[in-house]
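Entry 14. Structure prediction run on the chain below.
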Amino acid sequence: MCIRDSHYASLDILSKIGIVMKDPRGRQLLLDAGAIESDGRIKIPPNLIYDALASAPERIPMYNRLGEPTMPLELGRVFFGPGSDTPFTIDVETGQRRKATAADVETIARLCDALDSLDFIMSMGVPSDVPPDDVFIHGFIGMMRGSVKPVVYTANNRRDMEDIYRIAVAIAGDKDTLREKPFLLLYAEPISPLLFAPEAVEKLLFCAEKGLPSSFPPSPNTGGGGPITVAGALALGNAECLAGLTLTQLARKGVPFLYGMNVAALDMKTAVISYGAPEWSLAMAAEVALAEFYNLPVWGFGGATDSKVIDAQAGLEAAFSIYTAFLSRCTLVHDVGYIESGLTSSMEMLVMADEIIRMTRFLLAGVEVSDETLALDAIARADPGGGFLADDHTLKHWRTAQWFPSVLDRRQYNDWVSLGSKDLYTRLNERVRAILSEHQVSPLPAEAEEVIADVLAERARRRMEYTA
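Output returned:
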């Protein structure tokens, strides 16, 4: 892939084809900066893109809600977290697929909080048991109560953003602390191809106003919102993302922005957006190359499946995308734990993906070569034909020299049978239950819970006034 060709194609899309900007403020920002409006499109000249690239920070320091630095988003680092807003979940007690609830969001966040290989949280559910206008607020609250880890959140509109911001400020203590130590990152999207809806742009500009990090990954899925070819979809998605970046930098120069896009495949046989397709991983690798060209941290994907159950297909597709995310060195990898092409969340899938991530990290750490690891003294002590099981060197290093699974089974057959002949799904389910019964999360400050109660009460009051 020629990165420069892709880059220049994206500049041509923006400057010659143009975008449709439905948000009045976004339109004015671009026009005031030198963009041109013609035939209902805003055409953005390359100099605006280069100015935005020059001012966007190459590193986004992310904190947890306790104020501790945990996730510096920068090229070369790889962080994993779940996906967002699934309408369904797999019930951990019954194994049945059902609609997600607000309690599920908090429970899954608590599971993710306990899994060491998951670095951030997303709301794994669209709560079906709350008013439709409040689903993203309850999703944010559930994440905040369920975990101390950084969150990537979604919202419906500016009103949602204002309420989320109000809660986040209460958790941080004040506005300056939230801006200096952000624990939340917005996930908003344009509509591919080239449509910038007011709700999406409002959210993006709100974060810029507050000095908070945001992402704006388009989804030019091949054959759907993007051309059928990966190269064409990448050029389109890159153009859309660069337009979003430019908006943020025009609103507030230097505000953090996570570059990237989602380039999945619209399966031509099923009309399903495939989360197990190799095209997405291939496009992600190319996207990372573009991010390196721009020197920006990058959004990515991994740990998901199109399978409806936790089976061999789920393991294969999750392992493939996690491994390629590591190989490409993608910065922030979301969608871990998705099954059924992003429609359903599974806590068992999250635990399996955590195992895959741990295994892959061990592999990619390589072999440490030193006087201690070469173990020449231990080799000299060993009797020819004997072994090292009881050697002091083994006793000293066995806990760290080997990788140990948490759910994969290595027992001999008779031992496996004596312990119940449990398959992988059963072991995953038991691991989920054990974590949820044991893991505790630091509660929110009382002041933050008071603000949450006020926000929900005000939204309920406005809703009653609207329907009266």
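The two ends are 59 Å apart (CA to CA).
Filed with the rest of this week's runs.
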